[in-house]
Every structure is written in C-alpha cells, then in structure tokens.
Known about the structure:
By secondary structure, the chain is an alpha/beta fold. It is built from four helices and eight strands. Helix 2 (about 135-150) links the parallel strand 5 and strand 6 (about 155). The longest helix is centred in the C-terminal third of the chain and has 14 residues, at about 135-150.
Amino acid sequence: xxxxxxxxxxxxxxxxxxxxxxxxxxxxxxxxxxxxxxxxxxxxxxxxxxxxxxxxxxxxxxxxxxxxxxxxxxxxxxxxxxxxxxxxxxxxxxxxxxxxxxxxxxxxxxxxxxxxxxxxxxxxxxxxxxxxxxxxxxxxxxxxxxxxxxxxxxxxxxxxxxxxxxxxxxxxxxxxxxxxxxxxxxxxxxxxx
Length: 193
C-alpha cells in the first residue's frame, strides 16, 4: 500500500539528495510546472519534491527566500514594503513580498499576527510560508486574512531534514495538499543568449 517515494521528477531521473522526497501518499500525477519569472530558465532536471504538513491550505509559486534562523515579525518585517528589517537576521534587507518565505518558526508574540495580517492586506506579504513546526501566530494571521480580505496565505510545515535542504534563490511551488516542488534556477535568458 501507499505511494512510491519520489525524490526527483520522473523526467529528471537520478536520486534526490538525502532526505528529500515525497513519501507514501505522494501525488498521483505531477502537475506541470508554473512559469518562472520572465527572463528566468529553470533547470527542469533539478526538480525535487517533499511533502509537508498543511497548516493553511492553498497553492502558490515563487522564488524561495530561506533561512535557518527564526524571524520576529514585530520589528523585523516592514509591513509596508515586505522587507526584512531586523539587521541581525541573515535575510536583513531582503524583500519577502511575493516570494515563498522559509523560516523554521517565528520569534516573539502575537504581534507577529498583526504585522503579517497587515502585510497580507497591503499586498506585501510572502505568497506562502514554509516552517518546521506548527506556528499558531502565522496560522492565525492566515486564517484572519482569508476571512477579512479573502486572501489565502498557504503555510506548510516540513520535517527538519527537508527544511534544511531549502535554499534561497530556487523556484518553488506549493500544492494545496502540502507538496513542495523545488527547482534550481539554471540561468536567466540574458545569460543564455
């Protein structure tokens, strides 16, 4: 019973890196990849997938912005611009708006919910969040954003070894079922010309 573990897209061949793969219950069919940003060429051979625990269902795609350090949204995230403004954080100066933000968990209190909710309303929130554990403050912000503004903010939690494999700059897709597909960016079209 159960599904076959899948580490790489069947068209890509080859094994996945250690600890990366969709376990039992994996997708029955692999959806076609969403388009990458204009001017970007994805390395289709590098596609790998993992299954996360769905905290808030939804689908999204975008560039990964990943850190192994937790983030405090209160004083660490500018809800007007989507920039990470905590100067001690490894992602300081990076803009998370429109990207898939991967942080192990949040630091701080319920103010995370208020800051993230305002970012969702303003259109400066990440398109999705990947964590290592259930984060009630992130989940609450996503639930309220859906109720108040009709905007979905998908959130999934990965096992620690799967989370550790995520790298900023890769292109990723999240499915409503918790599947996370990651592609390496091969080059831009300008570089290939």
